[in-house]
Prior knowledge:
Layout: E1 3-9, H1 15-23, E2 41-47, E3 50-56, H2 68-82, E4 85-91, H3 98-110, E5 114-119, E6 140-141, H4 150-157, H5 171-184, E7 199-205, H6 211-219, E8 237-243, E9 246-252, H7 259-262, H8 266-281, E10 284-290, H9 297-309, E11 312-318, H10 329-340, E12 349-351, H11 360-374, H12 380-393, E13 398-399, E14 402-403, E15 405-413, E16 418-424, H13 431-445, E17 453-458
Parallel strand pairs: 1-3, 1-4, 4-5, 5-6, 7-9, 7-10, 10-11, 11-12, 16-17
Antiparallel strand pairs: 2-3, 8-9, 13-14, 15-16
Helix pairs in contact: 12-13
Amino acid sequence: MPLTLAIIGRPNVGKSSIFNRLLGKRVAIVHDTPGVTRDRRIGEVVFHGLDLRVIDTAGFEDAAPGSISSRMTEQSLAAIAEAEAILFVVDARAGVTTGDQMIAQALHKSGKPVILAANKCEGRTEPVADMYALGFGEPLRLSAEHALGMEDLAEALEPLAPRAIIADSDDDEDEDEDFAGEESGEIEEDDYDYTSKPLRLALVGRPNVGKSSLFNQLLGDDRSIVGPEAGLTRDSITAPWKAGSREVLLHDTAGLRKKARVAGEVLEEMSVASTLDAIRFADCVIVLIDAQMPFEKQDLAIADLIAREGRAIVFAVNKWDLLASKQGTISALREKLDRLLPQVAGAELVAISARTGEGIDRLVPAVIAADTAWNSRVPTAALNRFLESALMRHAPPAISGRRVRIRYMTQVKSRPPTFALFGNQLDALPEAYQRYLQNGLRENFGLKGTPLRLVMRNTRNPYAPKR
């Protein structure tokens, strides 16, 4: 089992920078603004041969009960309780402050082993003598920004952390091959068992629609801070979860606001970029809709973005418990969804309350069904029987007096399901007719909750002059 190491300290001492440096990649958002990190972020890594489970935390400070800072401190206290060892980070430039002394008292009470680190020691000897008064011995001199002192940190962790067991594995190579196949449009292997890997599930929506509340409800733990304030979540947080027998990596994300409102706000732009990365990483996305203000323009823009990224999609209408009249609402919302978002027509729409837990039991089957559709493969014979029937009901229109001919179709990949149409003049096939075929595919083969792709492949005219 890896050593669980919590990184604790005041706001803006460089905890997230150290977290990123330990993991060897930019995972957490780093900015000069104090209090950027608000939730616990966890990452597992082999650091200098040591097996670590690292927890990045919000700033630890004395604040009024109920305030955002107070809720952030509660997250840090939870990380201390969960951890087996603590990396206590102090700003070497600022020296020891009253806030550092308050944290030191809490860490002494915890009884956990503590490694004291003076961060921001960039190439010069910062005064650290006053840090001995904190009671944790000589501090390590670090500069997370410049990767200085990481070997000393590994040496300090060595008596506490187990050595990692490196096993030969082809998983990474297999995953790379899978992605390579998707990019090139090659036909995937029919016997690929997608359930053998965790389902990557992201919670996405406008600010203050209840993403973090749903994240906590699903996990059964207060992993993200919640409150009436919009924009509390700034960074995408990942946590393992289980949906029935299926392993899931659950992502809580920052709210997506309109581009014009984010432009020029560096921190918000970083939050949006983190959310977009979570969408691209996901297999399935739950789009949260506010039941009191459903399907606003930004909701539609978010859903369209997810469809263009080719991810499975489920709509969760949150705050259902706050509606005064519910009769007929779900039917009206389903009709509105299919009308406004034909690219994901038929996607599951589930009424929930993240606060009370109402409807959560219906959300999990909807996610599994959407993921199943996203991974589906349809036999070529069945596809062409469907195509023949669809062409008999409605033939493609003539373009400039010439008929568009669709000869046959086949599925070239899944994730999302992508179908190749073979025939003549297919580049001129109207979007309305493509939508007709897509809707037929959804109805006939249970492909609801996933975008569908149609690839046009014109057959060469043998009578056309050679160039």
